[in-house]
Every structure is written in structure tokens, then in C-alpha cells.
């Protein structure tokens, strides 16, 4: 599904992966659960592009629903992977970058579904720093957005007015909300990250879970 020219949401994948088409190749933001690489590669083929056109994979954070297919995609396409230092270390170890705050029945339920979120270890080829700009979509700037996880990043393309927010926010009911609850490492930092992102002036916000938020200025949480 094309959101704006050259920016696509690949449907049917948990969590939302986004594909950016530039003249020099393709950039993927997040990879979904393990096994999602098949849908991602099929979508790329549907655009008339080859697997080898996938040059970059940027990971917002190391949760299994965002990094699960990274190893398979790197093997298939030879793409380079980018992430923050904290998340890169977790990806290399095949684990999350923080523990979930589960208790009682919740802990039991998450224990049962944990295998679905398991990710194979993978190599991150380049560690990203705050305010670094990638040569993607006219300039894709790295925004530090800790809170959901310690090293969570978002990515902002000022020329297109589009923000890729990962799980720093969730889209629901026509509005955005900050990360909170048992899967949030630090709720105070999560709120600070939302404030930082709201100040960017993005017109479109692409989140990991929920629909893309258009006309986003009035949809940021009031925190």
C-alpha cells in the first residue's frame, strides 16, 4: 500500500514494515515477525524490483515483531542493517533490549506466545547516532526516542513530512498515544520522546502498530 509516492506500508505483517523506494535502491524500516520475509520479498517483487535492490534495513528496536525476519532478509538480499548501539547489541544476541514487566496471568500468557517473538541473531552493519542523516527519501534523520526500549529510534524525513515512529507511539481510534504499560522500559522517557517528535512538524506518522496517521499535527497525545 503506497502511503505517499515512493513510501509503502507492506500489509499483512506484524508489526508494520515500511518500504522506501529511491533511485539507488530500497530501504526497509523494520521486518516483522520471523517468517514475514516471504511477504516482504513478494511485495518487493510486485513492484518490479529484485531482492538485491533492498540495500538498507533500519531497525527501530530489537523486539521480535520488528526484527524477526532481519536475518532471513539479510541472507536473501545482502542488505546492510542499521540500528542504535543498544538495540544492535540485543539483535546480535537474539534477544530483546529490555525485559517485559509481566506478572501473574499476564506473565503466563506471554510465556506461551514468546516463541512467536523469537528472532535469530543478526549482524548490525552500522550503529546509528542521534541526528545522523541517511541518504534516503531526501534525507532521513535519526531521532532518539527511548522509552519503549532503551535504544529505540524513530526516523524523520523533513522533505516528505513523514515520521517513522516504531513503537514509540501507537495509532488507535484516529489518534496517537505514547508507549506505556508492561512492554515499556521507561514511561517517563516515552513521554519525553513523544514531545520531541510532536515538535518535528510531521504531517504523516507511521507507527509499528495501528493505521498510518495522516494530518498528524492534531493527533499527537497531549502529554
Short description:
The protein has 223 residues and is an alpha/beta fold. It has six helices and 15 strands.
Give the helix level as a range of percent.
10-25%
Low-pLDDT residue spans: none
Using DSSP, what is the number of strands? 15
**N-to-C SSE series?**
EEEEHEHHEHHEEEEEEEHEE
Decide which structural class fits the backbone: alpha/beta
User: How is the CATH topology named?
Assistant: Metallo-beta-lactamase, Chain A
First CA to last CA: what distance? 31 Å
At CATH level 2, the architecture is: 4-Layer Sandwich
Give the strand order, joined by hyphens, for the main sheet: 1-2-3-4-5-6-7
Strand content: 25-35%
Average predicted confidence as pLDDT: 95
Describe it.
This protein has 223 residues and is an alpha/beta fold. It contains 6 helices and 15 strands. It has a single domain, classed as Metallo-beta-lactamase, Chain A. The strands form 3 sheets. It has a 7-stranded mixed β-sheet with strand order 1-2-3-4-5-6-7. Strand 12 and strand 13 form a beta hairpin. The longest helix has 12 residues.
Give a topology summary.
Layout: E1 2-4, E2 7-9, E3 18-22, E4 25-29, H1 37-46, E5 54-58, H2 64-67, H3 70-77, E6 80-83, H4 85-93, H5 104-113, E7 126-127, E8 133-134, E9 140-144, E10 153-157, E11 162-166, E12 169-172, E13 175-178, H6 187-198, E14 204-207, E15 213-214
Parallel strand pairs: 4-5, 5-6, 6-7, 11-14
Antiparallel strand pairs: 1-2, 2-3, 3-4, 8-9, 9-10, 10-11, 12-13, 14-15
Amino acid at each position: 500500500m503506497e502511503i505517499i509516492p515512493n513510501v509503502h506500508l507492506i500489509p499483512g505483517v506484524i508489526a508494520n514494515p515500511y518500504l522506501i523506494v529511491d533511485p539507488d535502491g530500497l530501504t526497509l524500516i523494520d521486518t516483522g515477525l520471523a517468517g514475514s520475509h516471504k511477504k516482504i520479498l513478494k511485495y518487493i517483487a510486485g513492484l518490479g524490483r529484485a531482492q538485491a535492490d533492498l540495500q538498507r534495513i533500519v531497525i527501530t528496536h530489537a523486539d521480535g515483531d520488528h526484527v524477526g525476519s532481519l536475518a532471513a532478509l539479510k541472507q536473501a538480499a545482502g542488505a546492510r542493517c542499521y540500528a542504535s548501539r543498544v538495540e544492535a547489541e540485543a539483535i546480535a544476541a537474539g534477544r530483546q533490549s529490555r525485559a517485559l514487566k509481566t506478572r501473574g496471568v499476564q506473565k503466563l500468557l506471554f510465556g506461551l506466545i514468546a516463541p512467536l517473538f523469537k528472532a535469530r541473531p543478526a549482524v548490525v552493519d552500522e550503529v546509528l547516532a542521534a541526528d545522523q542523516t541517511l541518504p534516503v527519501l531526501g534525507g532521513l534523520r535519526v531521532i532518539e526516542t527511548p522509552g519503549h526500549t532503551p535504544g529505540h529510534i524513530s526516523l524523520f524525513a523533513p522533505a516528505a513530512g513523514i515520521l517513522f515512529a516504531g513503537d514509540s507511539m501507537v495509532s488507535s481510534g484516529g489518534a496517537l498515544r505514547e508507549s506505556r504499560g508492561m512492554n515499556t522500559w521507561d514511561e517517563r522517557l516515552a513521554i519525553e520522546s513523544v514531545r520531541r517528535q510532536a515538535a518535528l512538524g510531521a504531517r504523516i506518522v507511521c507507527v509499528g502498530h495501528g493505521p498510518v496517521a495522516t494530518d498528524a499535527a492534531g493527533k499527537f497525545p497531549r502529554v
